[in-house]
Specification:
Two copies of one chain form a homodimer.
Chain A lengths: L1 E7 L3 H12 L3 E7 L3 H9 L5 E2 L2 H6 L3 E4 L3 H14 L5 E4 L5 H7 L8 E6 L20 E5 L6 H13 L3 E5 L1 H30 L11 H7 L6 H10 L1 H23 L3 H12 L7
């Protein structure tokens, strides 16, 4: 489908994207762009990329430029890339926030060559070592402002994600950011906060961790995630994240109140309500 | 090792215990005791038990009586069982709280035939259908008040858990309940509360759940857990759970404050601290 793909950022998402496209025979040659030489070396070694070039040279040689870097640096890099592309090239991003980026590019003369996407897949690991070929499949990919991109660009990007096994959903950037706060960002914050809660206890000198079982691991897993990636997401989606965080604290206070008052019925009611999540996750 | 085992409660833990013992050749015959006929039928069908009897008859025929029922009904059932056993029989429980039970049995004339245990394994599912043979292995089992049990009883129970692949830890019941609040009970509360947070949003009519990815599933998984099992645990361990819950809410407030003040440095500091959990979970 593509002769040459440039990935800007050579980490978990872009590396997995590259591996998956190579695996499906959707790309012949992959160029990596990164400020970090160690990441480039690792990406070359792991076969995520075939060569590394400065961003200007890489963009010039590519049919598709795929940008997956922390959201606080996405806008300036994206502007730079968009200034370089012609009417046959396609640019797509994989960022976890969409409103700021879409607004920043709204009036760019090449806006129609850009497709705003958020493949809702990831792990708690980062960097090129974290990339895996078996990724994305079975998950949802959000496409924002589909109507603002050229049909040929949208069709190709959608076809790529479909071939990776993703379900496509169209959404405006504002709705995307609200929903991402609920189904992704808050999970990371609760996990970070839970880790801090338990680490606070560890200071008292107890070796409580040999007790930690599967339930603990599963709720605290995301606390291993990269601050360089997640802090900018929380900041950029601040209003939505704060709304959800306030709701979450108020839900925790209901549990607190039911325990303080020894209101067994209320406690059970809260838990039975939570059980309804069974409808949503298998 | 045992001719006949009675499991009181035929659910996730007791059923998995029975399957594992049968698998390792540690027991010849298993009797199930339950108030729920449907559970007994299912347990017989799945081969978790070989027969079902009233509790008095079951105890009389058994070398080992293993009690795994919600902690609010454990004390009365345990008293009944302890009143029935002789000096050769062994009684063990698998409860998630230990202080109330150990205090309740402290002066029982047969106390030395009881071994207080908490195998730190489980899933979010319950009932006999949830039982799996491959369970317990690689996890920690806490033994409380080891010195108050007869050496032959402790040795046999420890040997069973060792053969199931568990790491044994001795702990007094008060410490156990504190630590369980940190590494198990709080994870369940945050998960229940997170489910309620997101379900609250769903009321607004949005179909946000197709977006839910692996991170969300992992943090919210425990919200599927049984209220009949977990509400009594939270109530019985109320003081410790409230301590941890207060700490957790205060940790969440730190994230809230860092976002409200747009204090990026503080936000990153909170997340970098949480990353230290990498030392503890792989």
């Amino acid at each position: 489908m593509f002769d040459t793909l440039t990935i800007v950022g050579v980490g978990l998402i872009s590396g997995s994207f590259s591996l998956a496209l190579k695996d499906k025979g959707l790309v012949k040659h992959v160029i990596g762009v990164s400020r970090t030489q160690a990441s480039i070396d690792k990406a070359l070694e792991l076969g995520l990329i075939d060569e590394s070039l400065p961003i200007e040279d890489a963009v010039k040689k590519s049919d598709l430029i795929y940008i997956a870097i922390p959201v606080d640096v996405t806008v300036p890099i994206m502007r730079k890339v968009m200034d370089l592309v012609n009417e046959k090239q396609i640019v797509a991003d994989a960022g976890s926030t969409k409103q700021v980026l879409c607004e920043a590019l709204a009036n760019h003369p090449m806006r129609r060559r850009f497709v705003a996407t958020h493949p809702m897949w990831g792990t708690e690991y980062s960097g090129p070592e974290a990339a895996v070929k078996e990724s994305f499949a079975g998950r949802t990919c959000v496409i924002c402002e589909r109507e603002k991109s050229d049909p040929d660009a949208v069709q190709k990007i959608e076809e790529v994600y479909r071939q990776l096994g993703m379900n496509l959903v169209n959404m405006d950037p504002v709705s995307h950011d609200v929903h991402a706060a609920y189904v992704s960002h808050i999970s990371h914050i609760t996990s970070f906060a839970l880790a801090n809660t338990v680490l606070e206890k560890e200071k008292e000198g107890d070796a409580i961790f040999e007790l930690a079982g599967g339930g603990f691991e599963s709720t605290v897993r995301l606390a291993k995630s990269s601050p360089a990636m997640w802090a900018p997401i929380f900041m950029q989606n601040k209003e939505n994240v704060l709304d959800v965080l306030n709701e979450h604290i108020s839900q925790l206070r209901k549990f607190k109140s039911s325990l303080e008052k020894e209101n067994y019925e209320y406690l059970v009611e809260l838990m039975e309500n939570a059980n309804k999540i069974r409808r949503i996750i298998k």
